[in-house]
Amino acid sequence: MLAKKFYLVFVPLILCQCAFAQQEVLVLKGGTIIDVTDFGNSERDIPNATVVIEGGRIRAAGNASSVKVPKGAKVINVTGKYIVPGLIDCFGIINDQGYANAYLYMGVTTAVMTEDNRRGKIDWAVKPSPRKIMLDAYWGAKSRRVSVGGVENAGFEVVRSWSTEEIDHDIDSLGRAGVKVLLVHYAVVPAQLPAIVAACKRNKIATIGELGLSSYGEAVQAGILSFVHTSRYSADMLPDSLRKVYSTSPFGPPARAYYEYITGQKDLAGNPKLQELSKLYRDHRVGLIPTAAMVEYPEMDFSTNPWLEPIASIIDERMIEFEPLDKSTGKPKNPSPVRQGAVPALFEIDKVFTKNGARYLTGSGTDAFGTLPGISLHNELAMLSHYGLTNRQVLAAATHNFSLLWDWTSIGKVEQGRDANILVLDQNPVMSLQHLKAISILIVEGNIIDRNKLMQKP
């Protein structure tokens, strides 16, 4: 039974788990600040830069000729290195200290987390940790799970949709509780979308659509800011008869029918509905979150085994309950043949969206389908690159795009006034995304985190 209107989660008011009571002034001197603005289309890097950090925030950032080094500051020479914002994973979870360490080690300084039956419970007490931000799912109705085609709980049916007054009450309560991202879910109907969008704006809550009874076109027009999972945000391309059953049975036989449909298209890229949808996403400045690290990445010929990353050694594999990968191969243990066969088509869909100018945000889906904290975000970046984004556009998707699409103006860029979540890299990430792993200095909320200590098992 899905009888609850929402899950009320109280988020700690102090989001930084690693700040000291008093911080010294820290200066990074001599590196190059990489430009991640304009969705990665701007190339105005700042060479010979100076970044002044105080009280967990960036006090000044710019060319050395324009930034004064405060007297008594601790100065770190980063000449020849590259300075970028910390990475953002907008769809994951931190279950324990090992997860937090892995995120940090891989340069993820902000993690948006969701609790569900695939990912388990969030551990709010871990430290050090990325900034932890709560995502909550909103169905907009009293609904119940039903069996479809002999598959238990594969679908849902609505008992009663909530009124505008109830929506306002629910989302205002979530805002007071500290929720910053709302997953607008399957049971929400088109008539509810304006009230949900207005309430989220009022509470400064970003919106992600994973829709059923509302079309993605209707959600775009209503003002939903972003959409998650390729297999969901491409649903409007389906024939009307299939779209109707898929909307209420996203986990059962209709999901299989979706995969069979996209796999059976002789000219998927030329599908008129897909082309129309891609132009809609382009023209309305929404963000797409493929979570391709979950299903697509393991099947790619360029994929690597995530368990071979050094930081994976501290992750407790028992925490990964939903379709974990084989540790020896990095491949699914018992893959669905139909879903596996649809991977090339899913890949092609996002290539179409990319070619037509869609914008992206980064979410790994951790830890469903064997995805690992931090590590799988880098796999998501690799997928975005193979869709056709430039390396700079991929880096923007993991940083400043959140400022442009979700109005998160305190993170995502190395500039005065923003939070000091910073990576200093040995090599230029614009030349290769692999260079994002070559982290020389990791700074979270103004504090330098010792990456070697993160490798120690909690």
UniProtKB/TrEMBL annotation:
**Which UniProt keyword terms apply here?**
Signal
Q: Which residues form the signal peptide?
A: 1-21
Q: Does the keyword Signal apply?
A: yes
Q: Which GO terms describe its molecular function?
A: hydrolase activity, acting on carbon-nitrogen (but not peptide) bonds
Identification of the protein by name: Imidazolonepropionase
